[in-house]
Amino acid sequence: MTVLDGSIVTVAMPAIQSDLGFSPAGLAWVVNAYLIAFAGLLLLAGRLGDLLGRRRMFVSGLAVFTAASVLCGLSPTAGTLVAARFLQGVGGAMTSAVVLGMLVALFPEDRERTRAIAVFSASAAAGGAIGTFLGGALTATVGWHAIFLINLPIGAVALVAARRVLADDPGQGLREGADYLGAVLVTGALMLGVYTLVRTADHGWGSGRTFVLGALSLLLLAAFAVRQRYAADPLLRLGLLRSRTVTGANLVQVLMVAGMFTFQYLGALFLQRVLGLGELATGVAFLPAPVVIGVMMLGFSARLNTRFGPRPLLFGGLILIVGGLALFGRAPADGSYATDVLPVMVLLGVGFGLAMPALTGLAMAGVHPEDGGLASGLFSTTQVVGGALGLAVHAALASDRTRDLLAAGEAAGPAAGGGYRLAFLSAAGVAAAALLVAVALLRRGPSPGTARDAAEDGEDEAGATDTRDAEDSPTGSARVIS
């Protein structure tokens, strides 16, 4: 439902603007309000899931998200829709923050966990596949309200299933401690940071406003780090970040998702503004990528993970992503879908289908059960931050390049195509950086069955574990970007 929501809204934006009277700058808040709430609350929601129980947090988040979706669909004004989207982001954070920790706890055996992750990842890929197509179809036939109201039956089924299927876990209890000051600091830092990123399109990267807000966000983040070092019950145990594998996996995700978000959002604009496809045709054109991702995750990634381990799959997937984005960077303004776009969809689908499950398994490897929600929230947070950062940077690159080409006398279509091509090539460079970081930080650790080398991974005594090295296990969890 959350993946569906991320892709279904983008296609309906022009209709929403026309109906509710959004200004061009105000329309961005249909996306920004959700993104700021979602990103800002993931880490806190993950920790509260550990304390209060992940099932309780998951079910509560589903209820909030579903109710907020109804409010979005019934919104009579622009302000009401933005407020409802913020509430929707709160519900999305509550559910997404604990999903990976729940999967790791629910399926302790390697083989069944790998299969469960494959089904989970494929369902998320299906949400991505349906979202773009359904957004165009519903907007064109019923109206934009339906793209939000469709979450009501999905949410109702998910709520009933969750209450019946998921075992209740009491959590550690609030007596274990919730660092409320730390929660305020990190939530403020993440919300302000994402807000700064999404507003760079309006104010520019070199503006005083961007500099001041960015510096304040970093200051809050530094204050949070100091607070966690000395707090009696820290929100984020810093020992988790001293694991080379956990930190490396999250850093790789920031860079990889930055490239993939560029493909998803600017790629849709390229198809509409340069190749001239309509809303529904754009949705259909994007179907191959998530379908290939789902096929890879259901049919191949689990078995390949079991046979070769996560690192080779991650490296191979990143190489394919770099190749796909670079290929998209040469698509001409008068190109055809079959020869210039479809091969990119296939390459990126296979690459992401291989890389994401492997990367998520590494990010959750060796995490103590009591920190499962926290690690899940951290991984979800870096995913959102990576997407916001990549989109902000590459949208600015595309806009500046298009403006320069128009000033040089290029026609509108070729000028827009030139801007998007530069963004795709830059995204390929970012994905290449992700590959380099993966090779440098996610090198092979101890063999399966041996004790983890806490000194090598840099874990402190609280974060070290002497269990089987989960880093080379095919276990873990996977999410697909919305």
Structure description:
It comes from Streptomyces liangshanensis. InterPro entries: MFS (IPR011701), MFS_dom (IPR020846), MFS_trans_sf (IPR036259). It is a multi-pass membrane protein. The chain crosses the membrane at residues 27-45, 57-76, 82-105, 117-138, 144-166, 178-198, 210-226, 247-268, 280-300, 312-329, 341-365, 377-398, 418-442. The structure is a single chain. The chain has 482 residues and is an all-alpha fold. It folds into two domains: 2-178 and 235-472, MFS general substrate transporter like domains (Growth Hormone, Chain: A), CATH 1.20.1250; 180-234, no CATH class. The chain is 77% helix and 0% strand. The chain contains 21 helices and no strands. The radius of gyration is 21 Å and the shape is globular. 54% of the residues are buried. The model is unreliable at 445-482 (pLDDT under 50).
